[in-house]
Amino acid sequence: MLTKVAIVGRPNVGKSALFNRLIGRKKAIIHETPGTTRDRNDHEVSWRDKSFIVTDTAGWSTDISVFSKDMSRQLDIAVEKSDVVLFVVDGKTGVHPTDVQIAQQIRLKRKKTILVVNKIDTQAEEIKGYEFYELGFDDAVFVSANHGRSVHDLLDKIWENIKYDRKVKKPRETLEIILVGKPNVGKSSFINTAAKEERSIVHDIPGTTRDSLTVRIQSNGKEYILTDTAGLHRGSKTKDDMEYLSNLSTNYAIEDADVAVLIADASQGIGETEVKIARLLLEKKKPVIVTVNKWDLIEEKEEAAKYFTEQLRERIKFMNWADIIFISAKTGQRLDRIFQEAEIVFKQYSKELTKEELNEVIRDALARKPYTCKSRTLKIKEYAQVASKPPVFIFSANDTDLVHFSYERFLENCLRAEFGFHGTPIVLKFRNYYKKKMD
């Protein structure tokens, strides 16, 4: 079990900036508005010969709003489950009354705590951070998360508190699954039910999830990394920079995912937004599972299932290789099946054909259905699979201008009929065979 490190502190002290710096990429949304981070966000970090899980948390607040209460509860849980706490304070503004309250709460948990005095951009500014020793923590590091100053010193401090067992076997490749869909379709409920604890704040107001939330869960004896994304809106509904940043963060998360789960609402069907998200997933060349959530609220299930399947095949024709699964994130109905299906589609996504397997199918397809256009016959001389994740095939033709999309679809269907490629896009590229270098 990896050591768990929780980043805590009041809003706007730079917790998400520190999280991004520790993991080496911009994953958490950073914004001057307090409360931007509302959920706990996990990511594995390796430093020297050790690894640990770092958790970004919502800002600790004494505000009485519903969100602030939820965020404080999330923070309490994160500290309780952590082995090491990074207590982040703002070195420019000095000790804040809320810092004192947080320090008292952390001490009650009796966790190893490293005081991180952030926004110290130069050595000369370190003197301003000495007042934070009054909070009662002797282990302190003065850093600038934005500029990376002294972050390596902080990593060394964390490293000193990580138990290292050389006998631990390297775990299998952990599948990363991303949940995508418009706001309020049940992505956060999916996370909470799958994790068997409240990891994401659930609220009726669309857009509650602003950032991409990453959680490690267990299902059927296997570990998965599950990412809940901020709800994607149509472009015309992007009204402010916060929503823009949320959409941008979601796109980055899609890039990193192994499998995408597109969630639709059973009461709304598959509409324009779902089609646009599906096109985005296809553009990113990701394997996809389509799910219809809130299935527990549907009465005529047999007729509804038929309707949804027909709607999927009609509105998302370009993704007819994706299966549709009817779930209830609230009750947990068929959630286990999602993870089983994710294993299957990722294997298809990673599939590599031998030269002999490919030859047999393509030769038969070309002989069975030659293609002629304007008295010219398309001739394909060479073909090969050149990549996986997704599977990519290159065909050398006498004239690529003769390759009609319908014939390209015919070849794709032949490959799918023989080898499956279930749940995954496959890419066919054509080049003139007198070009020796492949694209």
UniProtKB/TrEMBL annotation:
Q: For GTP 2, which residues are the binding ones?
A: 181-188, 228-232, 293-296
Could you confirm whether the keyword GTP-binding appears in this record? yes
Q: Pinpoint the EngA-type G domain residues.
A: 3-166, 175-350
**InterPro entries given in the database record:** G_ENGA, GTP-bd, GTPase_Der, KH_dom-like, KH_dom-like_a/b, P-loop_NTPase, Small_GTP-bd
Q: Which residues cross the membrane?
A: none
The UniProt keywords, alphabetically, are: GTP-binding, Nucleotide-binding, Repeat, Ribosome biogenesis
**What's an example GO BP annotation here?**
ribosome biogenesis
Q: Which PANTHER family match?
A: GTPASE DER (PTHR43834:SF6)
- Chain's role: GTPase that plays an essential role in the late steps of ribosome biogenesis.
Give the family this protein belongs to, as stated in its UniProt record.
Belongs to the TRAFAC class TrmE-Era-EngA-EngB-Septin-like GTPase superfamily. EngA (Der) GTPase family.
State how it assembles: Associates with the 50S ribosomal subunit.
HAMAP family, from UniProt? GTPase_Der
Supply the NCBIfam families for this chain: GTPase_EngA, small_GTP
Name assigned to this protein: GTPase Der
Q: Which gene encodes it?
A: der
